[in-house]
Amino acid sequence: MKENSYDSGRLNLPFVGLCSFGKYPYQPDWNAIDADFAILGAPYDFGTQYRAGARFGPRSIREASTLFSFGHAGAYDHEDDVTYLVPGKTKIVDIGDADIVHTDTLQSHANIETGVRAILAANAVPIVLGGDHSINIPCINAFSEQQPFHLIQIDAHLDFVDERHGVKHGHGNPMRRAAEKNYVTGLSQIGIRNVSSTARIGYEDAKKMGADIQSVRQFRDLGVSGMIARIPKGQRFYLTIDIDGFDPSIASGTGTPSHGGFLYYEILEFLDALTKHGDIIGIDLVEVAPDYDLTGSTATLAAQLLLNLIGRIHHNRKNNAGK
C-alpha cells in the first residue's frame, strides 16, 4: 500500500518531545540562523505597572504552539484553499530566549536587542514572544540600521507615556519611544479603548507624532477594508500585538485586561489583508501572563494567531513578488 504523506516519519504528537515553538528546529547558535522566520523569547516583565507574570509568556506560547505542530503536511486552510507552513518551504527556527538579568531593565533590553539584531543579520523575520510590552523598545532599537517602516499596534492601551516618575522604558512607554525614531515613518494604533494608562496629552502627542488612533468600535465601523485603507500601502510594516487587544473573554491571561476587545477572526482577517497590503518585517506579541488563565486559552490564541500570520506572510510574499 502506498505510504500516505501524513504517515511518513515519526508521529510526534503535541505532548511528545521538546517544546520549541511549533516544534520547529531549535538553533542555539545565533551566528548560524538559517531561516525565513526566527522565534525569540523575551521573558521580561519588570516593566509592568499592575500584574506581573508575562515572563512566563514565551514558555506558555511555545507549549500551546505544539497543538498546531502540523507534522509532515503543513496547514491546509479550506477557506483559502491554501496549504500554509509547508515543511521544507517555510523555514522557521526557534533560537531560544534572550538572557534576562533580574532588576536590570537596560541590560535585559540590550540582550533582547542583540537577539533581534542576530535574526535581522540572517535576513530572517524576527518573531519575538514577550514578556511585557516594554520589550518592544529593544525590538524597535534593533532596526536602527534597517530601512524605514510603519509601526502597527494592536492593543487596548496607547502606551505613549513619555516619562512617569523617571521611568522611560516601562510597558507604558514603548510607542512613544518608537515614535521618536527617525526610521519609524508613522503609527497605526488599533483597539485603543476605555480607561487607559495614557492621559489626554499622550493622545495629543501621539497624533502630532504621526499616529492614527482607532478604537475597537471605530475599527468595526470601518471594517477590515476601511482600516487597511488608512494604512500606507506598499510599505514595510512592523507589527506589535498586545494580547489585551483581544477581549478578556478569550484572553484572560494578561496583566491589564480591558473589556470590549477584539475577537479572533476580525484580527486574523485584518492581518491577512495587511500581508497583502505591504511587507511585515518584524513582529512581537506581548503580555501573555498564563497564571491568570487556568484554561490556557490565552497562550493558545497567541500561538494560533502567530502561526496563521507566519503562514500568510510567507504565502503572500511569494504572491506579491510574482505580481
What would the keywords be for this entry?
single chain; 323 residues; alpha/beta; Arginase, Chain A; two-stranded antiparallel sheet; 10 strands; 31% helix; disordered N terminus
What order do the helices and strands come in, and which of them pair?
Layout (H helix, E strand, L loop, with lengths): L36 E6 L14 H9 L9 E3 L4 E3 L7 E6 L7 H17 L3 E6 L5 H6 L7 E6 L19 H6 L4 E7 L9 H9 L2 E4 L1 H14 L6 E7 L21 H14 L1 E8 L10 H25 L2
Parallel strand pairs: 1-4, 1-5, 5-10, 6-7, 6-9, 7-8, 9-10
Antiparallel strand pairs: 2-3
Question: Would you kindly provide a written description of the structure presented here, covering whatever features stand out?
Answer:
- 31% of the residues lie in helices and 17% in strands.
- The chain is built from eight helices and ten strands.
- The chain has an eight-stranded parallel sheet, with helices on both faces.
- Helix 6 packs parallel to helix 7.
- The longest helix has 25 residues.
- The N terminus is likely disordered.
Task: Give a quick rundown of the structure.
The protein is α/β, with parallel strands linked by helices. The protein has eight helices and ten strands.
CATH top-level class: Alpha Beta
Into how many domains do the coordinates divide?
A: 1
Strand order of the largest sheet: 4-1-5-10-9-6-7-8
Q: Portion of residues in helices?
A: 25-40%
